[in-house]
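Regression test case RT-17, inverse folding.

Input:
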């Protein structure tokens, strides 16, 4: 049987970065992916992703956000490919709503550069956005755009250059861990490794079924609106944005990189399994986003030119899972989605590779413990 230091299950955003960091650290690395390289069936396609720093989900993310950005910019410099583009970002909503208040609390707690803009200040600086009088915007200068397909392709190629083997069209069917290592089975064969890293995105709960993870799969749509004003909708003038008008209208957007201004909603359709996701585009998917665009954006057409579906994998608390399997210390479990994980995949790969090699991860992972959803033993 072929033996490795690290086997990685899933070569999407997190897995491609994990094989990159593992192979570059000298580990004999195998990556197994059920589909082809860079595919549209999981969570990491659709041309663009937002990164931001004044993190509304909490200050615990900021050290990882900063390291992730360093890694993205170095990857861009080393590869000469378009990986990342800084545009700045606006978090828009009522001052007391979760988007603005959350970003403001993190910015204040960590003294991050930011500004609060009134509707008229936004109208002066960013005429693409129409706020109502009860809203404000938090300006995060350290925000921008990542290009996920390129990130995955460059990480995967870098891993191969550093000696990793990547097998596509090879789904992991089973694994067993013992004190010495892990045995992984696919239809094509059996592999032995010192450590296993699970970065299986929306399939994670099935791959580590013994953990009974309460992960929920949510099908989303992204829509691209053709620009009617090229001077205000490109990345040099238009920042990325998150816009919160209450629990039922939570929207984000990304400037035009040639295919239109991308707009999506944080609300989608829950599906029991990734394979069961309804990929059909319904009027009910389009109408709320078209309504938002008509009310709140200037410089784009009223109808989208194209759309695509994508999957969120949500934890009940919307925070990530990054850590060792509670019963098998040689198995590392990663689920960094809940709709906001791509920007972290550079640093998550670095952390996962360190955990797989039994090194210190370099970050406090306590808030991300994969065992936190297990029922606590009764003390009665
Ligand atoms: C519409 C949408 C918008 C988003 N916007 C943002 C954003 O703006 N900013 C941001 O930071 N994040 C955003 N996210 C979240 C981000 O994209 C995800 O957190 C990230 O892509 C998750 O990467 P992953 O590696 O966990 O999953 P994936 O990239 O889906 O990778 C998992 C891989 O594992 C493979 N796999 C699964 N099971 C097996 C198996 N048994 N054997 C072999 N291979 C297997 C799958 O085929 C897949 O390739 C968004 C997500 C969506 C859906």
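Golden output:
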């Amino acid at each position: 049987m072929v033996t490795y230091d690290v086997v990685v299950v899933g070569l999407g955003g997190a897995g491609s970065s994990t094989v990159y960091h593992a192979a570059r650290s000298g580990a004999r690395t195998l990556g197994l992916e059920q589909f082809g390289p860079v595919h549209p069936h999981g969570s990491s396609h659709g041309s663009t992703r937002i990164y931001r720093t004044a993190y509304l989900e909490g200050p615990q993310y900021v050290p990882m956000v900063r390291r992730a950005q360093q890694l993205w910019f170095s990857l861009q410099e080393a590869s000469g490919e378009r990986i990342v583009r800084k545009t700045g970002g606006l978090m828009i909503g009522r001052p007391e709503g979760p988007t603005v208040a959350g970003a403001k609390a993190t910015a204040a707690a960590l003294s991050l550069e930011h500004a609060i803009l009134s509707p008229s200040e936004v109208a002066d600086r960013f005429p693409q956005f129409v706020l109502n009088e009860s809203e404000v915007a938090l300006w995060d200068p350290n925000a921008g755009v990542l290009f996920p397909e390129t990130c995955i392709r460059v990480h995967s190629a870098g891993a191969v250059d550093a000696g990793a083997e990547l097998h596509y069209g090879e789904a992991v069917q089973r694994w067993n861990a013992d004190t010495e290592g892990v045995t992984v089975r696919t239809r094509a064969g059996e592999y032995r490794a010192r450590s296993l890293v699970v970065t299986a995105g929306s399939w994670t709960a099935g791959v580590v079924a013994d953990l009974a993870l309460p992960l929920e799969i949510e099908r989303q749509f992204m829509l691209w609106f053709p620009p009617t004003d090229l001077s205000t909708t490109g990345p040099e003038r238009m920042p990325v944005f998150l816009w919160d008008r209450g629990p039922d209208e939570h929207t984000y957007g990304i400037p035009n990189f040639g295919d239109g201004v991308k707009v999506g909603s944080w609300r989608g359709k829950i599906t029991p399994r990734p394979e069961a996701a309804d990929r059909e585009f319904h009027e009910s998917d389009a109408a709320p986003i078209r309504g938002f665009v008509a009310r709140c954006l200037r410089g784009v057409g009223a109808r989208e030119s194209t759309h695509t579906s994508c999957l969120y994998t949500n934890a009940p608390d919307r925070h990530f899972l990054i850590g060792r399997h509670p019963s098998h210390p040689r198995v590392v479990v990663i689920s960094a989605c809940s709709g906001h994980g791509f920007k972290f995949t550079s640093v998550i790969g670095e952390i996962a590779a360190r955990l797989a090699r039994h090194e210190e991860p370099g970050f406090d992972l306590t808030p991300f413990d994969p065992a936190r959803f297990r029922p606590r033993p009764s003390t009665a």
